[in-house]
Structures are given as C-alpha cells and as structure tokens.
C-alpha cells in the first residue's frame, strides 16, 4: 500500500506536526490515524487521536476505550472526548455531528494544535453528492465536501476523499489491525442509512455519479462546505 501513503504524504506536504486526527474506530478513521502517525514520525513530530463518545449507544464508552487501547499499543497519544448533557430528541445525527465538531475544535484550540484531520473517503463524498442532489441542492452543495477548509482558526483536512474505503480496509489488514463497524451506518433509523440502501438498490454507482458530475459546470467554483 505504498501508493496510499505516497498520496497521503503529498497531500500533507504543506503541513507540519503536531496534528490531531478524529478517530471513531471505523476502518476509515483508524487508517487515517496510522497513516498520520507514520507521516508525523518521518517529520520528527507527533499526532494525537481524538475520539468523541456521543454516549448515544450503550456500548459507545467501551468502543471509545477500545480505540484508546489500539492507539496506545501503537504509541499514538489518544484522548476521549465525551458529549455531556441531555441529548436532543429530534435531528439527532445533525446535532451529534455539531457537538462532535465543537468538541474536536475546542480541544485543538485549547492545546495549540492548528490542524485537524477527518477520515471521510470517496464513498462518503459520493453519498454526500447524491444526498444533496436529492434535497435540491444548488451547485455549491453539489461540489461536495472540501479537502481543505478553515473553522474557528483550525485547518480541517480530509486527505482521503479520493480514496476508496476498500483500500483503507486493505491497509489495515496489512497492518494486522482490526476495526469497529458502526451499526448506525446502515441503520434504517437514520436517513443516511436508508439512503445508502436506496443507492444500492437503484444501482447509483460511482460510474453513474461521474456521468452526472460531468454534465454540471465545474462545482469547485461554487464550494460552500
């Protein structure tokens, strides 16, 4: 998987450590964490893994601790951030996402780390496009997630947006590293899970996405997110 690290290294070429990595324990964010660790070691710096425990499932604390142990075993500093307080009864995923960003960015600011890496990959980008298309988004929304953006003084990077999730899992297999499968990703309880099932059933593949995007004006001129 040397090509994967080479692409990752090239993407981060303007950046200097230390950096923080948001890691849920899924294959995408764990692969990102260990790629970042390798990169930071070559730079003579270090990386910090940040796991947000939303406390929405009975086993969330145990999963966060599991990620903590995996990170420490590989010599990566790791912090668990917990979403405290009463949880909302509506728009739960949206509110959880907002809380996650707030916790991650607040920690980075408090510890003078100016760069935060997120593990969104090519499939996430594809799903974002289809979701926004289905909701009637304009060209700004159809541009998808940005690889680089600033939020509250923190540089947020998504180095894996061009990487297929299968490649990230293969990387972890070569590292002999297991990962956690989040049941909410496929759950019909949440809109994104239902939409993923719809995409599969209707055959809305990557190839079809490319055909759709090719008939649109260049969306990079209209990015908003």
List keywords for this structure.
single chain, alpha/beta, Rossmann fold, 225 residues
Briefly, what is this?
With 225 residues, the protein is of the alpha/beta class. It has helices at 2-11, 27-43, 60-73, 92-110, 122-134, 139-142, 165-174, 191-202, 206-214, and strands at residues 19-22, 47-53, 77-82, 115-117, 148-151, 154-157.
Structure commentary:
With 225 residues, this protein is an alpha/beta fold. It has one domain: 3-Layer(aba) Sandwich (Rossmann fold), CATH 3.40.50.620. It is 48% helix and 12% strand. The chain contains nine helices and six strands, in the order H-E-H-E-H-E-H-E-H-H-E-E-H-H-H. The chain has helices spanning 2-11, 27-43, 60-73, 92-110, 122-134, 139-142, 165-174, 191-202, 206-214; strands at 19-22, 47-53, 77-82, 115-117, 148-151, 154-157. The chain has a six-stranded mixed sheet, with helices on both faces. It starts with a helix and ends in an 11-residue tail after the last helix. The mean pLDDT is 84.
């Amino acid at each position: 998987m040397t090509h994967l690290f080479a692409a990752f290294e090239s993407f981060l070429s303007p950046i200097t450590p230390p950096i923080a990595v948001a890691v849920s324990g899924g294959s995408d964010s764990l692969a990102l964490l260990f790629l970042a660790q390798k990169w930071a070691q070559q730079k003579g710096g270090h990386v910090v893994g940040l796991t947000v425990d939303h406390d929405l499932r009975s086993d969330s604390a145990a999963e966060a601790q599991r990620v903590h142990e995996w990170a420490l075993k590989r010599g990566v500093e790791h912090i668990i951030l917990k979403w405290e307080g009463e949880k909302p009864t509506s728009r739960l995923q949206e509110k959880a996402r907002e809380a996650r960003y707030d916790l991650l960015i607040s920690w980075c600011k408090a510890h003078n780390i100016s760069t935060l890496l997120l593990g969104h990959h090519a499939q996430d980008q594809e799903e974002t496009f289809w979701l926004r298309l289905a909701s009637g988004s304009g060209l700004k929304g159809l541009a998808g997630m940005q690889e680089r953006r600033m939020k509250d003084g923190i540089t947020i990077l998504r180095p894996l947006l061009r990487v297929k999730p299968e490649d990230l899992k293969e990387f972890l297999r070569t590292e002999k590293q297991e990962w956690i499968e989040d049941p909410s990703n496929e759950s019909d309880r949440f809109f994104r899970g239902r939409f993923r099932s719809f995409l599969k059933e209707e055959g809305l593949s990557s190839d079809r996405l490319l055909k759709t995007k090719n008939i649109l004006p260049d969306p990079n001129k209209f990015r908003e997110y």
